[in-house]
Fold this protein.
Amino acid sequence: MNAIVTRSLQPEYRHETILKAFDIINQKGIDFVLTIVGDGTELKNLKKLAKNLKISDKVHFTGRIPNSDLPQLLQQANFYLSMPITEGVSASLFEAMAAGCYPVVTDIPGNQSWISHRENGQLIAIDNIEMLAEELIWANENKDYREKAVASNRSFVEKNADYNTNMKIIADRYHQLINSSEIA
């Protein structure tokens, strides 16, 4: 299992939940690599927690990286994790889906708009460490399902979340509104 987290190391992103779930996974003898990208106020606490859980040899904290390096890290991972307590539209979720990561995210409205549980990813109750561990294990054991979801997600992102395509749609609509108000 190769997982990545790309959210800022702030309390609201609940990285400790992820580390504790990986402790459960580790105790079950499942091998993993967890890459945590970014920086923030929780870095020191998270490194200490990984050490206390005896998983620090499997958890890699990259610190802040250039955006140009992110696609390669995402492509190396097969799971994208994000456990915030609140979320709008997540660009990092779309980036991960486009790069071929299987999303495991918090069951909150901002994610429910894009992810259906066990259809194209998994939705995890806020701070539910056991559920996160169980769902990651399930997804890891169901590779065919996961690969189908990843392919579907990639197509979805290409169709619905491409910046250039959507900016053209927005610009066209904006011009229609301007033109219609000039007529009135």
About this structure: The domain at 2-183 is CATH 3.40.50.2000 (Rossmann fold). Helices lie at 15-27, 43-52, 70-76, 91-99, 109-112, 129-141, 143-160, 163-183. Residues 98 and 157 are 6 Å apart (CA to CA). The chain is about 50% helix and 15% strand.
